[in-house]
């Protein structure tokens, strides 16, 4: 069973949603959670005698507006203490809904990279017709060398197998066209390396529309492009949901009755773009299961982030290094 440290003061609604998410986690799984933060504020939120919930006092909170590198000097913050617990092997991984840059700094420099990994990356599951597509990198590395794409592909493929239960994941390279000669020099060189070193899993270039509507399980790109894709998909989902609501409000009585009868369908549509069920973004390439939850996470989002971290440990996601061809 896994032990996951949870930054109890990371989200916009901390520590209440973290506490509720932790309770869901121990109720629905056999894993252990360590709530890290100000014990005076956390302990009253957990019923006395609750099994597999532990506490570790950390008096400070690292803010969203602080420079990420400052986290290395903030040893008493809840986020930094979570990383230290992983480094000291007192936890298998940690979850935080806090400052993304700071989490990346801790994962890379405090916990440390896996041997052979040059660039840790963020893997995010994007809603798609196949039940979710892994986008890697979605924000850790603004630019990449051609050889970095190969490592990202192997990590993304392992994630698709371990977390999404894809037996033979298809991996594509994000580009402006499907032809091998498309893209800048870095991407064209990356294409050649992926074709030679990723083997049967690599299906070639894919375009932006293939992220949500293609048959590919993993899409590899640099963090600059990936983060733009991620924010665009999030914004589009929110816009479509809001536009649908406004359209119903402006409709006549008969149309509103029809909309009422379609309530279940609308709910299902909304859930398709619900970030909470995907469990956050996984930092791959480091010596621990590190997951970044959304800043506005509620208890269900926190639960799923903890669940994904634990599944990563259970399914040996960190041992991705075997290169299948």
Task: Describe it.
The chain has 325 residues and is α/β, with parallel strands linked by helices. It has two domains: 158 residues, Isopropylmalate Dehydrogenase; 159 residues, Isopropylmalate Dehydrogenase. The protein is 42% helix and 15% strand. The chain is built from eleven helices and eleven strands. The protein has an eleven-stranded mixed β-sheet, with helices on both faces. The longest helix has 27 residues. The radius of gyration is 20 Å and the shape is globular. The C terminus is likely disordered.
Features:
Isopropylmalate Dehydrogenase, eleven-stranded mixed β-sheet, disordered C terminus, alpha/beta, about 325 residues, 11 strands, 11 helices
Short overview:
By secondary structure, this protein is of the alpha/beta class. It is built from eleven helices and eleven strands.
Fold-level CATH name of the largest domain: Isopropylmalate Dehydrogenase
**CATH homology group of the largest domain:** Isopropylmalate Dehydrogenase
Strand arrangement, largest sheet?
A: 3-2-1-4-11-10-5-6-9-7-8
How does the major sheet shape up? 11 strands, mixed
Number of domains: 2
Number of helices: 11
What is the name of the CATH architecture of the largest domain? Answer: 3-Layer(aba) Sandwich
Give the radius of gyration.
20 Å
Question: In CATH's first tier, which class of the largest domain applies?
Answer: Alpha Beta
